[in-house]
Amino acid sequence: MDSEFFKNNQKGFTLIELVVSIALSLIIIMVLITIFFIQRTAFDHQQHISGLQQNIRAAMDMMTREIKMAGYDPAGTITGFNGIIYDTSQIRILADLDGSGTTTSNSNEDITYRYYDENDADYPLELKRKTGSGGSFQPFTEDIKAFTFSYLDANGAATTTSSGIRQVQITITGRTARPHPVYGYMYGTLTSVITPKNLGF
After folding, report:
1. pLDDT digit string (tens) for 117-142?
2. Which of 77, 116, 170, 176 could form an SS bridge with 123, CB 3.0 to 4.6 Å?
3. Over the chain, what is the mean pLDDT?
């Protein structure tokens, strides 16, 4: 029998070629995994930034709506009525929403906002809200790095008397819930000057 019959002319991979192929495949897989994690981190970061913006905007919108009702007295029967009480530690808003001639018949007629900074042991970086004069403060919004406010008179100058308040300027600085692995916490600030129409501006 001819020995040529048993010759195999098909060539396979050498061991070196196989090792090189596996190494290249591993490199490509590692690059793809790295790209995936970079994109995932960027997406998560954008989600946190979006959450931060929504958080401070929602807080500002609600406070604006309630402050604009300050001094509401449809019956005109409350003597010496001040819709906003001067206080450097909190914002207190009074309004006769149901026309009863008092601000005690409805808990939403007496609203107070107070900020607890990072040094507070119980509620750090939290803005809380209280309804009614005897109510307790409840969580309003978290991850608030700074909250400042000032009372302005009809000329836009700072005032220290409740009867002189015609505007309230509020600045809210929020931060992301978690730090970015590279950049750390990200911050956003929103400022608004609110003019309650019922205060005779």
Report:
1. 999 999 999 999 999 988 899 999 99
2. 116
3. 90
Phi, psi of 166 (to 5 degrees): -125, -20
Which residue is it, tokens 């591993």? 26
Element (H, E) at 62: helix 15-68
Rounded to whole angstroms, the Cα distance separating 68 from 33 reads 52
* pLDDT tens by residue, 165-194: 999 999 999 999 888 887 889 999 999 999
Rounded Cα distance between 147 and 170, Å, is 7
Residue with tokens 């803005």: 127
Q: Report the distance separating Cα 199 and Cα 166, nearest Å.
A: 6
List Cβ neighbours of 189 (8 Å cut-off, separation of 6 or more): 56, 146, 171, 172, 173, 174
Predicted TM-score (pTM) of the model is 0.77
DSSP helix/strand/coil, 67: helix
CB 126 within 8 Å of CB 114: no
Q: What is the pLDDT of residue 7?
A: 55
